[in-house]
Every structure is written in C-alpha cells, then in structure tokens.
C-alpha cells in the first residue's frame, strides 16, 4: 500500500517538474538583455526587467490585449449558456432525437481546426463577418460547443432523477428546474467549463489569424510573431512577451482554482 502511494507521489512530482522546468526557462530567458543569444538554462548576469515594458511596446500589446479581452468576454458566457441549455435539453428533458444529436456533438470533438478553418472563412465572408469581432466570437462559440455539451451532459447525467422529479411535483417548469434546482449544484462544473473556454479563447491563434486581416485587431498570441525575424529571433523579448500573454490565464486559474479542481474531480466520480 505504501509503495503504491509512493509511486503516485513520484509520478505527480515528475509531472510537476516537467511542467515547471520549461516555465522557469522562459522566465530566465525573459530576464536576459535584449538580443542576447541564449544557450540552455543560463542565469543572466544582469536582470533586465525592462524587457517586459519593451515587449509590451514592440508587440502592440495594448491593442492586442484589448481584442483578446473583448472576444473572451463575449465568447465565454455565450458558449457556457448554450452548452448548459443543450446539455439540459439532451440529458434531462430528453428532447426528440437526443441520442443522434449527442452523437453529432461527440463527432464534433474529432474535427481539427485546420480542417475547417478555410471553409469557415469563406462561409463567414459570404455574410460579411470576416475581419470582425462578431465573426470570431460566433465562430469560437460554435467550435467550443461540442466539448461544452459533452461536459454538461456528463454532469447532468450524474444528477439524481428524484431531484428533478421532486421539483416537477412541486409544479416547477422546465426553466425553473434548470435555474433554481440544477444550476445551484452545478457551479463547479460550470466554473470549470468557463475557465477552459477562457483559456481556449485566449490562446486561439489560427482562427483569429485567418479571420482578422487587420493586424491591430488580432489577439495577444498573434503579437508573438512580431519578435520572430527571418534570420534572427530576439529570444529575451519573445520570452517576455510569452509571459505577458499567459499571465491572464494564470490569474484566472488562481482565482477559480478551488471551483476548477472541484469541477474536474466531480466529473470523475459517478453518483
């Protein structure tokens, strides 16, 4: 028994090291003088904290961060609302054709972005939604739906039938059952889905690159390409820009860490 616990802790420590070592390498690289040529994990002789301000200015991060926030602020609540409603309808209400619809959403999980982005561009161009935030928001919400519906279906399938039946006996309509009975006990699952949606929306690169032709209206990850030249790459500034881009994700995760972990473990335990 002790040996099994030791193995599990050993695996967790190994995974932690595998995640933290590259992160520490990026931090060290970001603190070298601009233009420095780096070789492995080297400690900078002089800590260049000004790299972050310089990377922010050169990468036009003010405009790009504004675009990322604007898109995420609309994508996350819209996607979560649609996923909750769809999961509720397919699992609790058992709408007509729910099994076929569920299978369709699961199949949607297998579609890679590279396969559909070109067709999606031409479809949105026909209705005038390219080079606009509206097109990107709608596209991301649609692309995130398969996982969100699958996630909420899995959560609602663990809700005891007696709880829903008791609410209906008391005269509660379908919408009231969702809002007053199921959602209060579903916040961990909803919070976890919201954090995942925010992370995916914030990190979205290819979709924004294809749909948004105006460089000043693209999102933060697209700004990283400004630090990569044809012949040379400014590694310290690129590393500093990477830390700037991932900082909001880290902050959001830390703020919702407890609910996020609760939602993950809740989905792994039946009953």
CATH topology, by name, is MetI-like fold
Compute the number of strand runs: 0
Measured by DSSP, the beta-strand proportion falls in: under 5%
Total number of distinct structural domains: 1
Succession of helices and strands: HHHHHHHHHHHH
- Overall pLDDT, averaged? 86
Helical fraction: over 70%
Q: How large, in whole angstroms, is the Cα Rg?
A: 22 Å
Overall geometry comes to globular
Q: Which structural class do you get from the secondary structure elements?
A: mainly alpha
> What's the architecture, going by CATH?
Orthogonal Bundle
**CATH C-level class:** Mainly Alpha
Task: Catalogue the unreliable spans.
Answer: 267-271
CATH homologous superfamily caption = MetI-like
Q: Please work out how many helical segments DSSP would assign.
A: 12
**How far is it from the N-terminal to the C-terminal residue, by CA?**
26 Å
Major β-sheet profile: none
Pfam families: BPD_transp_1 (PF00528)
InterPro entries: MetI-like, MetI-like_sf
Keywords: Cell membrane, Membrane, Transmembrane, Transmembrane helix, Transport
Family: Belongs to the binding-protein-dependent transport system permease family.
Structure write-up:
This protein has 271 residues and is mainly alpha-helical. It has twelve helices and no strands. The protein has helices at residues 2-30, 50-58, 61-91, 98-108, 113-126, 133-157, 161-169, 174-182, 187-203, 206-211, 235-255, 257-268. Helix 2 (50-58) crosses helix 11 (235-255) and helix 4 (98-108) crosses helix 6 (133-157). Residues 267-271 have low confidence and may be disordered.
């Amino acid at each position: 028994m002790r040996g099994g616990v030791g193995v599990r802790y050993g695996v967790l420590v190994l995974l932690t090291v595998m995640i933290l070592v590259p992160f520490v390498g990026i931090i060290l690289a970001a603190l070298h003088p601009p233009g420095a040529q780096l070789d492995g994990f080297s400690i900078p002789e002089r800590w260049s904290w000004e790299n972050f301000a310089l990377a922010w200015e050169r990468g036009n991060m003010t405009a790009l961060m504004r675009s990322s926030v604007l898109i995420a602020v609309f994508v996350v609540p819209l996607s979560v609302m649609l996923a909750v409603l769809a999961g509720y309808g397919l699992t609790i209400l058992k709408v007509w054709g729910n099994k076929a619809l569920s299978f369709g959403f699961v199949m949607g999980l297998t579609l890679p972005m590279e396969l559909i982005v070109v067709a999606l561009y031409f479809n949105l161009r026909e209705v005038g939604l390219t080079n606009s935030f509206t097109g990107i928001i709608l596209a991301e919400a649609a692309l995130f739906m398969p996982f969100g519906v699958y996630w909420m279906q899995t959560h609602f399938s663990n809700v005891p039938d007696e709880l829903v039946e008791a609410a209906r006996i008391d005269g509660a309509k379908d919408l009231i059952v969702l809002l007053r009975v199921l959602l209060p006990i579903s916040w961990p699952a909803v919070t976890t889905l919201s954090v995942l949606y925010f992370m995916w929306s914030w990190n979205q690169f290819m979709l924004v690159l294809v749909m948004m032709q105006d460089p000043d209206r693209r999102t933060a990850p697209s700004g990283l390409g400004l630090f990569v030249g044809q012949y040379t790459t400014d590694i310290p500034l690129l590393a500093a820009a990477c830390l700037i881009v991932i900082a909001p994700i880290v902050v959001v995760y830390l703020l919702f860490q407890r609910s996020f972990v609760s939602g993950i473990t809740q989905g792994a335990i039946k009953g």
